[in-house]
Amino acid sequence: MNRRDFLIRLLFGLVVVVMALPLFWLLGGIRWLDTQVFPPRRPKNMPQNAVWIDAPALPISWHHGWWFGCDTLSAGTTNYCRLVMANGHEVYAGRYLPCEGRSPVPTSKIDLVAPPDKIGMWIVDKRLSEMAPIGALRNGDLLLPVVVLDRCDELKGTHRSD
After folding, report:
1. Residue of 25, 18, 83, 88 lying closest to 57 (CA atoms)
2. What is the pLDDT of residues 60-92, one digit of tens each?
3. DSSP, residue by residue, 120-132
4. What's CA 76's distance to the chain center, in Å?
5. Range(s) of the domain holding residue 17
6. What does DSSP say about strands 112-113 and 122-123: parallel, antiparallel, or unpaired?
7. Same domain, 74 and 97
8. What is the pLDDT of residues 29-71, one digit of tens each?
9. Mean pLDDT score of the chain
């Protein structure tokens, strides 16, 4: 193969790659890379039960979402849940209790799932200083900030984990 043929093949290959990249992006290739090939890694300061919650999609984003995880406070009175960004920056932290039983769930038994309705994962209430995330448990129960536990029935009607 002479030099001219090599350059033509190289140029043709480059054109194919340049044309294929937008197609790859449009067909969900970036999403596939983001979730399957390079999934987000749980920050070291988050508990083992932490789950990744995807944020609403952006045209071009990488690990756009949050980690939500809970522990049981040493006093054993409530669960302490935190929401952090992919880089570990804390977005929210507070005391939570489950709707059913209204007593803290032992850390070893906390089985969190990402909320099925990603947009409806927040609770807004004037008793809270800011929006707070709602924790969804695999058994269908919810973890709510302690000050808004009286809204369990209302919120359980709109949040179901399958």
Report:
1. 25
2. 556 678 999 999 998 889 999 999 998 889 999
3. GGEE--TTSSS-E
4. 26
5. 3-32
6. unpaired
7. yes
8. 666 665 666 678 889 989 999 999 887 666 555 667 899 999 9
9. 84
Residues 20, 81: one domain? Answer: no
For residues 130-143, average pLDDT = 92
**Backbone phi and psi for residue 9, each to the nearest 5 degrees, phi listed first:** -65, -40
In terms of Cα–Cα distance, which of 120, 116, 121, 108 is closest to 70?
Answer: 108
7, 33, 56, 86, 157 from 63: Cα distances, Å: 38, 10, 11, 7, 30
Q: How far apart are CA 162 and CA 155, in angstroms?
A: 16
User: Are 102 and 46 in a shared domain?
Assistant: yes
How much of the chain, in percent, has pLDDT values that exceed 90?
44
Q: 142: Cβ–Cβ under 8 A, 6 or more apart, which residues?
A: 98, 99, 134, 135, 136, 152, 155, 156, 159
Residue in this structure with the two tokens 């399958």, named with its chain if needed: 162
CA gap 128, 36 in Å, rounded: 36
Q: How many CB atoms lie within 10 A of CB 1?
A: 6
